[in-house]
Design goal:
Layout: H1 2-34, H2 48-52, H3 56-66, H4 79-82, E1 86-87, H5 94-107, E2 119-120, H6 124-133, H7 142-159, H8 165-182, H9 184-192
Parallel strand pairs: 1-2
Length: about 200
């Protein structure tokens, strides 16, 4: 009987610790739903032909991003990162990215005129993935975060620039307009914060 009491007590104690972690996770998701970004009005997946054209490690990062248990979708819709204005150019070192950005500014200055379409920065995805990992209830492991980062960085440089730039600009502008029409107060808040 004493052994049974100990087992029941251990189970109850274990569940007491699990509930706050789950509540924190849910509160992050609830916050995300209550405070939408234009990104949230876009698709939650990418077309198969786009993903199949990516390298294997980038495809693996995409699958991690979509995971509801260990990826971005545990705290918000996968649409949020997939439709984000953030662009990180290729290059592992800051200096390489800085140089690529400087070159792009000279060659394509129009990409830097509308921050609601493109926000091109050095290590922007690296910063955001780390920030998301530190949110309460986030179960993102370091290896998975690295994989997601590799996807986001590669995808942003390939799907939002070059031959895809015009199509991307139309897509982003339509998302901003949807937010403006459906949630005008949130649109105004983000516009004033320069966070559209």
């Amino acid at each position: 009987m004493k052994k049974l009491s100990l087992i029941v007590a251990a189970l109850l104690l274990g569940s007491a610790f699990a509930v706050p972690a789950r509540a924190a996770e849910m509160s992050e998701k609830e916050k995300a739903l209550a405070n939408p970004y234009p990104n949230d009005y876009g698709p939650e997946t990418l077309p198969d032909d786009v993903i199949k054209a990516y390298p294997a490690n980038v495809q693996a990062g995409y699958k991690k991003l979509l995971s509801k248990t260990g990826g971005c979708a545990q705290c918000h819709s996968s649409a949020r990162p997939l439709n984000s204005r953030f662009v990180e150019l290729e290059g592992k070192e800051d200096a390489a990215q800085d140089s690529a950005i400087a070159k792009l500014k000279k060659e394509k200055p129009e990409l830097f005129k509308d921050n609601t379409v493109w926000q091109i920065e050095t290590k922007v995805w690296s910063r955001y993935v780390k920030r998301m990992m530190n949110k309460p209830g986030c179960n993102l492991q370091k290896a998975d975060a690295k994989s997601i980062y590799e996807f986001l960085s590669y995808d942003s440089a390939h799907r939002k620039l070059g031959a895809n730039a015009v199509k991307w600009a139309e897509h982003r502008k339509s998302l901003v307009e949807k937010l403006k029409a459906e949630k005008p107060a949130r649109y105004k808040e983000l516009l004033e914060a320069k966070d559209l």
